[in-house]
Amino acid sequence: MHNRIGNDPGVCDIERTDDHVKPYVHEGLDSKSMHFSICEIQSRMQILRPDVLELEYTRTMMGFLMFAPAPDCIAMIGLGGGSLAKFCRRHLPEASMRVVEINPHVIALRDAFKVPPDDARFQVTLADGARFVRETIERFDVLMVDAFDSQGMPAELGSGRFYDDCLDVLQPGGLMVVNLHAGHPHFLVYLDRIRRSFGENVLRVDDKDGSNSVIFACKGDRLQRAVGGPLRRPAGLGADAWEQLQGAFSRVAGALQKRAR
């Protein structure tokens, strides 16, 4: 149990670092990666292009722009190496972003992974993600959940209560985007819980090798309205970002078509 700081819901006692495993950084000639173990990469960054989305599942998660091309307010549970946070910070300049990370050792590496400093529209908060969505009074257009520790995804972030709370913190028409490990023994349980919370407004998009599955869940019918629409670059999204995301948009569009059959 973590203590709260002030009136900020879910904020952890920053002195209690002994509760969390410390990740390590591996640096190669052109990339840098964050690990809890040698077997799995938590995040990877190109050293010369730190804002590029290196891992396929992160590009798929940004497929939310197909449904919400101009979000005003984004929240994210899990910082990692900051790939998604940096991409949003650079390519969605009108959006504000709140990133919630429970592990202080991960936040301590934000400079190593070129995560920008906090400012009026970008904040990284040390907090318990499940408690944050349960207690916050903020409401978001997009909520991204990509939170793994040394043991995998915490059970609290796969509970029915958590997904109910995620639905609650979304604006009408808002989207939750969750990265799950498709091979996890409870994967289908988590997916069923998301469907119980969001009803039929759920889309599953698997990556090429089947290891990650990105789940889009909408508070409303945006997924249905997107079926059959043309694949186009969202207004305001630059050419560099579109080059990275176009393949992911195609995968999401394919999943939409398959779901509609």
Structure description:
By secondary structure, the chain is an alpha/beta fold. It has a single domain, classed as Vaccinia Virus protein VP39 (Rossmann fold), CATH 3.40.50.150. 29% of the residues lie in helices and 25% in strands. The chain has eight helices and ten strands. The protein has helices spanning 56-61, 83-91, 104-107, 129-135, 160-169, 187-198, 222-226, 239-260; strands at residues 24-27, 31-37, 40-46, 73-77, 96-101, 122-126, 140-145, 170-181, 202-206, 212-218. The strands form two sheets. A seven-stranded mixed beta sheet has the order 6-5-4-7-8-10-9, sandwiched between helices. A three-stranded antiparallel beta sheet has the order 1-2-3, with no helix packed on it. The longest helix is centred in the C-terminal third of the chain and has 22 residues, at 239-260.
Outline:
With 261 residues, the chain is an alpha/beta fold.
Termini distance? 46 Å
Largest sheet: 7 strands, mixed
Please identify which CATH superfamily we are dealing with: Vaccinia Virus protein VP39
H/E order of the elements?
EEEHEHEHEHEHEHEEHH
CATH class categorisation: Alpha Beta
Mean pLDDT: 86
Strand order within the widest beta sheet: 6-5-4-7-8-10-9
Query: How many structurally independent domains?
Result: 1
Structural class: alpha/beta
Helix content: 25-40%
- Could you tell me the CATH topology label: Rossmann fold
Overall strand count: 10
Strand content: 15-25%
